[in-house]
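Box 3.1 A note on notation
Throughout this textbook, protein chains are presented in two layers. The first layer is the amino acid sequence; the second is a token string describing backbone geometry. Keep the layers aligned when reading.
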Amino acid sequence: MNKYTALGTDVDKEVQKQLDIVSEEINKEIKDVKSIIVYGGFGRGEGSVKKVNNKYYPANDFDVYVITKKKVNGSLLDEIAKKVAKRLGSKGIEFNKFDKNWSFEDNFYLDLKCLTLKELRRLVPLLRYYELRNASNIFYGEEVRNLIPDYKAEEIPLGEGFRILFNRMTHLVEYFSTEGKHNDLVLSFFCVKAYLDSCTALLLLNKKYSPFYRKRMEDFYKYYEEDFYHLHQKVPDLHEKIKKYTLWKLNFNGELPEKDAVKFWMQTRKDFLEVVNYFISEYTQKNINDINDLSTAIINLGKEHYMPYSQFYLKNSLGINSNVLSFLVSKLIPFRFKQLYFKRLIKEKKFYPRILINKRSPDNVIFGAVPYILFALNDDLSLNKENFEKGLEILKGVYPSKAKTWEELSQDYADAYILFYLMKIV
């Protein structure tokens, strides 16, 4: 079995060379490195690369944690990521603005985060921490993954399924352009990821989650009709599509999964909305019949969303088991997110106090806007004015958008999203 990809030893050797550059740049700047770990696709041995002029480029990014004794400043991590991108022949990404002219070779991104040895012992059961312990590769330093609490997959909060679904819905907006700016292969790649992570979220629901794409595909194919009867009635071939696109990703060769990338995007958003409606209905125990119901449910996520995280945090960090304190912490999380996001916008010279008076957490407001924005285009790509106006109004709750077109609105949405999530607080 190959270490980083399913594409053979030669590809793995090239990936190793690139990870050696990552290690070298990290060790130049950080002096107490204990371990460097790649997780995500390359951690599972399921990474994707594109070959251009006899050079291999990671499809999307490397997800990497550097483990240290002392905490490392986030701005230093960003600088290291930029240096790595440059050495790998890529211009990298901007940390404050999304580029719709995105390509694998030009926009490689090192998603570099830091955890201390002390923090490893206190981690809550996020998907990425579960994968960090159970489906990752150490490419520098010592074995430290045994310090991470040995959670069972069944303990992963359903909020993780929510987060990954709306990250993927965001990507469907980010990587599509009505002006033809998008790269067909990149757009198709993220359509595929939407299918694959539909599988991820649904298997969290039925307690059959695995960190490996192939195992998830096999289990979903086996249990789809039985475990998700109502969704199966609406999208009867979802398991077939997930199988097809999982195998495409595992054997990625740079060719399109479907001939027409725009039609594939249309197909994906239609299927994906059904999956998201089903998941959020189960997660919130509310009837979700359309994007109005969906957006409202997302924006109003509260105690049921944050409580599992606050419970694990108090238990792991302070040794406290208290539902009362967990409830109080869960109520404080949105206020902390608002404060951090407000400061981030100020750093980008966007003074927007409306964030602070909005009752909801900025991440949920951002995600509450995305269903409207995704479906602010009709099937013929004409503007759906009602959805456009609703999406714009919600986004303006946390971001100063003056969009007049779908292209402008999708760009503002992408910028709002990247400003929040590249703070790396969730």
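The chain is about 55% helix and 10% strand. The radius of gyration is 21 Å.
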